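Homework help board

Subject: predicted structure for assignment chain

Our instructor gave us this sequence and asked us to write out the predicted structure in token form, then describe one feature. I got the tokens but I'm not sure how to describe them. Can anyone check?
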Amino acid sequence: MLPNLNIDDLPLPTTLAVPLAADAQLQVQRGETLPAGAVLATGSHSADCIAPRAGTVSDFRRQPLANGNDALCVILQDLDDTPTPLLLPPLSATTLPQLLKRAGIVGLGGGAFPAWRKWRQQLRYFIANGLETETAAYNDAALIAAAGDNLIARVRTVAQTFAATPLLALPEGVTRVPRANDDPMLRYLPAHYSLGNERILVQHLCQLDIPAMAVAADYGVVCFNIATVLAMAAAIDERMPLSDRVITVHDVDGGIHLLRVPLGTLLAEVRHYLKQNATALIGGADEQQIAGDDAVITAATTVIHWQADAPPRAAQACIRCGACEPVCPAALAPQELYWLAQDSRLPEMQAQRLTACLECRRCDEVCPSNIGLTALFIQHKKQLAANAAEAQLIHRRQQRFDHHEQRLAQPVARFSAQALKQRVAAMTKQVSKKQ
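My token output:
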């Protein structure tokens, strides 16, 4: 049963703290007054950092983010709600990455990956993913309902710009697009979290198996969350930057609110607007971070829970019930991986395809012992990745050492005195001819 899908606009905050990417270089100074959409910072690998509202740069400081990390932020005050379209060259296949980068478009499904980096010259399919990618989130459903009849046209516009065949994945029996049910781009799929995973979705819709650590775009498929697609459509059609996102907020009394908030909004603004006096938990029902009032809402923030303080349910011993295995969409054996993880038997966990884990948390949901299997798997996946990176570094160092030794072993060419005299004479003769 879906809640009321009407989206409310959060009143204009008094302050925005806009976080910068790790590679970003500042383009503004303290005291500078900026229009909405102005570039605050730019980097070679990230999307440009955009001013979500017109305002004055009052400070630069590190600020906690809603996901538990922290980042250097540009603090904007004296805010104004006036939107400002971007000044960009005419759109073409070659300028699309530039537009997406300049508009600050990143993934709004929770990953915040720069959209321009998924662009490829030759693509087969463009997937608009309308399946919620976070448990307890209703952002996609609300945006689909708000777009109504325009949804199909917007998806098709962006897909045509990417020069790819459009496919729109929607949850079965939940969301219907008015007067468009027969459109060939529509695909209705069962409404459960794991189908929102890019790799599984590509397999369902395109019959392509993408390796665990590979990028779907390299196989001719790009997949974007529906909120990201609508943001790209606004950038393409109206030259508007990404300045807001829709979040799902669960209040302490069980109510569900859908809010459109400017990026960089502090959590205190949401608390004040909804009059909540409880602990803020960021994330879906199965992975949550406690956040304070000074935490910044970013493009990666999807769900906020206001929850009265209560002792967490403790994990108990595994009873080997096997309930986790049939629900795993990647056909893994979570129970076997759990026991291998107890002794950190990484080679055996790798042989059991640990890296194929989608981190969907369906095993957590069915575990009667409340064991955090997914968190355990993520920890060991990170260790596997770190080991692989270290092995690669050792290999490169060995290669450099081997090349160094080979170079030292090579004989040094030396000129005899007679050969040197002949070489000098030849060079002198050439100079004389030129004069």
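Reply (TA_rk): Your tokens look well-formed. For the description, you could write something like this. The chain is about 30% helix and 20% strand. That's the kind of observation they're looking for.
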